[in-house]
Design brief:
single chain, alpha/beta, eight-stranded mixed β-sheet, two-stranded antiparallel ribbon, globular
């Protein structure tokens, strides 16, 4: 099983403020959909709250310490071990962590692959992606998307595989 994560962060690791995204990048949202559709996605409860609904065509797994939490259309689990056990039992090929900050911090050293969107700009934020060393990864894909009418900032996409 491949463990991966997907994130969009600013030049200083910014990923959110007040439980909301910091930008609207239409084409990066399409990118997110392309890399997560058909795969189980794992998120913290606050990330789920910010989305507000289960994402379609994906198994939505919510990590929460609330043992009695139930969310319609989602699996709620209380530990990474439970997620891994479920994934192994279900012969999952790729499990994708989608946030938030605490989840990323916990799984960064464990993931095999990262889908990173680096947004060109500095933003006011209260949630950050942990630092990582690009030298520890092989770049499988990379491109730049210039600012346009549907994307308010220039951004770069990287698909990285741990060396």
């Amino acid at each position: 099983m491949i463990k991966s994560l997907i994130v969009a962060h600013g030049e200083n690791g910014e990923i959110g403020f007040d439980n909301q995204l910091l930008w609207h990048l239409s084409d990066d949202l399409k990118n997110f959909k392309n890399h997560t559709t058909g795969k189980p996605i794992v998120m913290g409860r606050k990330t789920y709250d910010s989305i507000g609904r289960p994402l379609p065509k994906r198994t939505n797994i919510i990590l929460s310490r609330q043992t009695d939490l139930q969310i319609e259309g989602c699996l709620v689990m209380s530990s990474y071990e439970a997620v891994n056990e479920w994934a192994m039992e279900n012969q999952i090929e790729e499990l994708v962590y989608i946030g938030g900050g605490k989840i990323y911090q916990d799984v960064l050293s464990e993931v095999d692959k990262m889908y990173i969107t680096k947004v060109h700009g500095s933003f006011k934020a209260d949630t950050f992606f942990p630092s990582y060393d690009m030298d520890n990864y092989e770049i499988l894909d990379h491109y730049t998307h210039e600012k346009d009418e549907k994307n308010e900032y220039t951004w770069e996409f990287f698909e990285l595989l741990k060396k």
